[in-house]
Amino acid sequence: MNRYIVTGGAGFIGSALVRGLLAQGGRVHVIDNLSTGNLDNLEDIADQITVHEFDICDYDRIAPVIAGAQRVFHLAALPSVPKSILDPVPSHQSNIDGTFNVFRAAAEGKVGRVVYAASSSAYGDTPALPKVETMTPQPKSPYALQKLVGEYYAAIFSECFNLETVSLRFFNVFGPRQDPTSVYSGVLSIFLTCLIERRSPTIFGDGEQSRDFTYVEDVVKLLLKASEARGVSGKVFNAGNGGRYTLNETWRLLQKLEGVNLPAQYGPPRAGDVRDSQADTTAAVQELRHAPQFTFEQGLRLTLDWYRADVARKQGRVAAGANLVS
Ligand code: NAD
Ligand code: UD1
User: Fold this and answer.
1) Which of 184, 213, 257, 276 has the most CB atoms around its CB within 10 Å?
2) pLDDT tens profile 91-128
3) Which amino acid residue places its CA nearest to atom 15 of ligand 1?
4) Predicted pLDDT of residue 258
5) Are strands 3-7 and 71-74 parallel, antiparallel or unpaired?
6) How far apart are CA 275 and CA 267, in angstroms?
7) Which residues on adjacent β-strands are paired with residue 34?
8) Which band of pLDDT confidence, cut at 50, 70 and 90, is reported for residue 9?
């Protein structure tokens, strides 16, 4: 039976990918230090997978797990732009040193292929839209640079160490299980939670910055395709939807979906923030058969339903706990 490794498998995208891999059959091992991830994300499938609570910076622990795997999906990283500016050391360690360890362990352990979660933040504020893979990167933050270094390592391991690698530049991914509880959380997880709780969100800057929001199930499908496509080793592909929405438009759309009027508050722009982001999907469509299935609005509705159900689940747990105590 095929053995798959998902680093960062207890996180938002990783836990969705684990479900995708289980659905196609195979044994899944998760490597995660639970720094931003959570075992709750894997609770309902815990008996079908093996979780290794290891840090990817610890080569000696992760190498034996990775050795001999069919495919490694390397998603473990500290994913926040502002956090990489406020506290750059941990994100440098996980995103560069840890990433090097994963590629090294995969090459030495004769892994079939590594698919690497790269980031559209690599484009920075290059003026042209949509962003094409051939543009010269202009990272604007430590995080963007770190993710770009990972891409370069992926290409070098393909070139020099006989390891098949593919890098997917995720654009802004959203969907169920994205953690909304941190100031560093993805904007849609925060917006959707505000909507459910009937609170106004804070928009950093004028709200006219735009993003190619991509539903997580479309990203999972592309990860699976990238793990099997032929003739793509060492390459980088955009993993976006091809659309673009400003934050102001997005918050207006969400209020309309719920029939509420909750004007956003505005705060100062964030350092390192990219202004506009939109994927050219041509290469991914042609070479990986990328076929996004969810429109932005469909994804938003599914995610809103999930957060609402999650609130109810958590309230149920609290009530059950209270009953036990009394
Ligand atoms: P997430 O924080 O939910 O998941 C990251 C996971 O990596 C977490 O479970 C965390 O505990 C784990 N991790 C972090 N450092 C680790 C370490 N040193 N050792 C072991 N595990 C570690 O974030 P996500 O949004 O699911 O992001 C997954 C990947 O996708 C990241 O590599 C991120 O850079 C990339 N990405 C995400 C987006 C997005 O919009 N969410 C866009 C572009 C790229
Ligand atoms: C996101 C991802 C990053 C990924 C990148 C790819 C997260 C946490 N970050 O970065 O991993 O590599 O996309 O493009 O998943 N904002 C607000 N109010 C808030 C929160 C955010 O206005 O409460 C704004 C930010 O200033 C930014 C936009 O929303 O302009 C998006 O922010 P965020 O969700 O943190 O994502 P990116 O920085 O784009």
Assistant:
1) 213
2) 999 999 999 999 999 999 999 999 999 999 999 998 89
3) 77
4) 95
5) parallel
6) 15
7) none
8) very high
Residue 11 Cβ inside 6 Å of ligand 2? The answer reads no
Q: Which of 222, 219, 210, 207 is nearest to 289 (CA)?
A: 222
Which ligand 2 atom sits nearest the alpha carbon of residue 204?
Answer: 22
C-alpha 261 chain-centroid distance = 30
Q: How many residues does the chain have?
A: 326
Contact (CB, 8 A) for 158 and 234:
yes
Residue 151 confidence class, pLDDT cut points 50, 70, 90: very high
What domains, with CATH codes, occur in the chain? Answer: 3-177+214-243+275-293 (3.40.50.720)
Average pLDDT, rounded, for the chain: 96
Residue 190 CA, closest ligand 2 atom number: 23
| pLDDT band at residue 323 using 50, 70 and 90 as cut-offs | low
Given CA atoms 197, 190, 217, 285 in this order, what sign does their dihedral have?
A: positive
Pocket perturbation via mutation, ligand 2, pick of 121, 149, 172 by most ligand atoms within 8 A of CB = 172
Q: What whole-number distance in Å separates Cα of residue 264 and Cα of residue 248? A: 8
Q: Other CB atoms closer than 10 Å to residue 162's CB: what's the count? A: 10
| Backbone CA torsion sign across 17, 23, 25, 26 | positive
CB 106, CB 66: distance < 8 Å: yes
Complete DSSP assignment for 188-239: HHHHHHHHHTT-PPEEESSS--EE-EEEHHHHHHHHHHHHH-SS-TTEEEEE
| Residue from 272, 249, 312, 36 nearest 146 by CA | 272
Give the pLDDT confidence score for residue 78 in this predicted structure. Answer: 98
Ligand 1 close to Cβ of residue 158 (< 6 A): no
- Is the bond leading into 130 cis (omega within 30 degrees of zero)? yes
Residue 153 Cβ inside 6 Å of ligand 1? The answer reads: no
CA 35 to ligand 1 centroid distance, Å = 9
